[in-house]
Amino acid sequence: MMAGCVKAVKLGTNVRTRRSLFGGVAGIAACASFAGPLKAFARPHRHAGHAAKTAAAASAADAPVGTPANTPIGPFDTVARWAYVVDYDTGAVLLDKASEERMAPSSLTKMMTAYIVFGMLATGRIRLEQSLPVSEKAWRTQGSKMFVPLGQSVLVSDLIQGMLIQSGNDACIVLAEGIAGSEERFVAMMNEEAPKLGMMNSHFANVTGLPAEGHFMTARDVATVASHLIRDFPQYYHYFGELEFTYNRIRQGNRNVLVDKGLADGLKTGHTDAGGFGLCASSKRNGNRVIVVINGTSSSNERAHEGERLMSWAFANFENATLFRRGQVVDSAPVWMGEHRQVSLVAGADIVMTLPVGWRQRSHIAVDYASPVIAPVTKGQVCGALVISAPNMADIRVPLEAGESVAKLGLVARAMTRLGHGPAQ
Is 110 a catalytic residue? Predict the structure, then answer.
């Protein structure tokens, strides 16, 4: 791989070296193919020239009358009051509209309820074939229902399907009471677990999403719990994608129209007067998975149309570009007073970034390190950074590690080197 010095700046006893590795599609295409985590985008600028026109043209024929959301390729209108689109693999934010603003999550709450239930299943605290009793509170719970029978017991597997496919509030109460003894204690578990998942702006007052004071989530937090459900409990994720469920001789279809149309493989919808019509959906196409969250639309039809539109927009306008695999040599750096004159700089983890389609040739990749690296050097020691630049993006810096250890020269060899009689450093 060819590398040329771009600039060197005096920094103490070392020289800060920035070496350009490559720019554009030819360089990126030369890298290995793998997917791994990297937070690709900082908060985007609201001006992106030609790329913004590309985004606007993506759905021009059916563009809604809405207000703009921020995207890495410029403003993009959506009728949703709250919207958040993220690449599941890289964490790159593709679209953001009021994603940190508290909102009434309605039945999107049930995703957090499900996370606690799945955790109990995974640890053996409950079993799918176990039955839980139906209390009068559960039986009387209003809103969407599974229609559990009063005084009888229901299989956990049926309750999960009733909660996620039929959006049964009664099923949620039965699960909460069966696991924690009461809905209140189960809610305490939800509030304890949420910040551990990175949901820093959510608070739950119930397990159903029915209107209640102090019950809120953000669009970003909805996407966060969705990501954890997919990653932490793949063995149970299929429940979100089942098309229908019949219980007590009552057949109900999945309320997520994107799932019904085969455009998503999960997750959940919700509706209250305060939150409007909301949706969280995820889909995987050509190896990439995207999560879409919207809330505050005016009808179930508008929710379905906007969810589909944003999902299609995300896949049409962004792609994941693999740069380096874990352990792959990116460059090498000179070593001062070491038994070897150079040390390889390797990727400590797989490096993949999400880029707008067609922007590969406009990206620039360089390596930045203090030159020379002072011996001794330990394998895995951070010795520099890969710097990825693209228009309208903040530079992304990814740590580079020493690919091998380099011992320090002995006393005599160091003395000869300082006198200019040792090997060239």
Answer: yes
Amino acid at 423: P
Check if 167 is active-site: yes
Q: What is the tens place of the pLDDT at every residue in 25-74?
A: 334 444 433 333 333 333 333 333 333 344 444 444 455 567 898 988 88
How far is the C-alpha of 120 from the C-alpha of 274, rounded, in Å?
A: 31
Task: Lowest mean pLDDT of 46-55, 212-221, 280-289, name the range.
Answer: 46-55
Comparing CA positions, the residue from 88, 41, 86 lying closest to residue 231 is 88
Helix (H) or strand (E) segment spanning residue 389: strand 382-389
CA–chain centroid gap for 171, Å, is 29
Residues 254/165, Cβ–Cβ less than 8 Å = yes
Q: Which of 97, 99, 106, 107 is catalytic?
A: 107
Q: Give yes or no for a cis peptide into 72 (omega within 30° of 0).
A: no
Catalytic residue, candidates 167, 202, 227, 371: 167
Q: Give the β-pairing of 342-347 and 329-336.
A: antiparallel
Residue 419 sits at the vertex; the CA angle it makes with 413 and 425, to the nearest 5 degrees, is: 65
The predicted pLDDT at position 21 comes to 58
Active-site position among 110, 135, 283, 344: 110
Q: To 10 degrees, what angle do helices 110-122 and 156-164 make?
A: 160
What pTM does this model have?
A: 0.77
DSSP-assigned states of every residue in 93-131: EEEEESTTS-B--GGGGHHHHHHHHHHHHHTTSS-TT-E
Q: Are 322 and 35 contacting, i.e. CB atoms less than 8 angstroms apart? A: yes
10 is catalytic: no
pLDDT in tens, 174-202: 999 999 999 999 999 999 999 999 999 99
Higher pLDDT, 62 or 262: 262
